[in-house]
Amino acid sequence: MVLPDVMQGLSVKEKEYFRGLSFISVEEPHDKILVLVLKTLVDEGEAEAIALALEKNSLLIIDDLKGRKIARRLGMEIIGTLGLLKVMKLKGMIKRVRPFIEKLREKGFCISDDLVNKLLSDVGET
């Protein structure tokens, strides 16, 4: 599931790519009141993502620290981008994590060197 706001922020090429994946759908949460309440605590994107994951009782992919804390308090199962990359590498879905990290950093994703080094060590890419 992808939120409409997330899709709007993608480039044309990225939108085409994601629309071509049959296992991804664009959805928004139905509980607008929950979204409004969550927006008092986190940004709109995180609020919608948390609300939608709650509605669907699904894993939440979230990196925002405030959003992660709230999701944990709500008893939600969460994973971050780096955790997702780790799982994909360990399951053989990707060969290397480093190129993805480099691409994320090129796009402005802030990741500490210590965290990157730990991840690379965990997946045998040191």
Write structural notes for this entry:
The chain has 126 residues and is mainly alpha-helical. It has 2 domains: 4-79, Rossmann fold; 81-122, no CATH class. Helix content is 57%, strand content 3%. The protein has 8 helices and 2 strands; from the N terminus they run H-H-H-H-E-H-E-H-H-H. It has helices at 4-8, 12-19, 32-39, 44-56, 65-73, 81-90, 98-106, 113-122, and strands spanning 60-61, 78-79. A two-stranded parallel sheet has the order 1-2. Strand 1 (60-61), helix 5 and strand 2 form a beta-alpha-beta unit. Helix 3 (32-39) crosses helix 4. The longest helix is centred in the middle third of the chain and has 13 residues, at 44-56. The mean pLDDT is 86.
Please provide a brief summary of the model:
With 126 residues, this protein is mainly α. 57% of the residues lie in helices and 3% in strands.
Structural class per helix/strand content?
mainly alpha
Overall tally of structural domains: 2
Number of strands: 2
| Helix proportion range | 55-70%
Q: Give the SSE order as H and E letters.
A: HHHHEHEHHH
User: Which architecture of the largest domain per CATH?
Assistant: 3-Layer(aba) Sandwich
Which regions contain 5 or more consecutive residues with pLDDT less than 50?
none
Sheet-strand content, in percent, reads under 5%
CATH class of the largest domain: Alpha Beta
Largest sheet descriptor: 2 strands, parallel
- Rounded mean pLDDT is 86
Using only C-alpha atoms, the radius of gyration works out to 16 Å
Classified in CATH, the superfamily of the largest domain is: 5'-nuclease
Kindly identify the CATH topology of the largest domain. Rossmann fold
Main sheet: strand order = 1-2
Discrete helix count: 8
Shape: globular
Distance between the termini: 33 Å
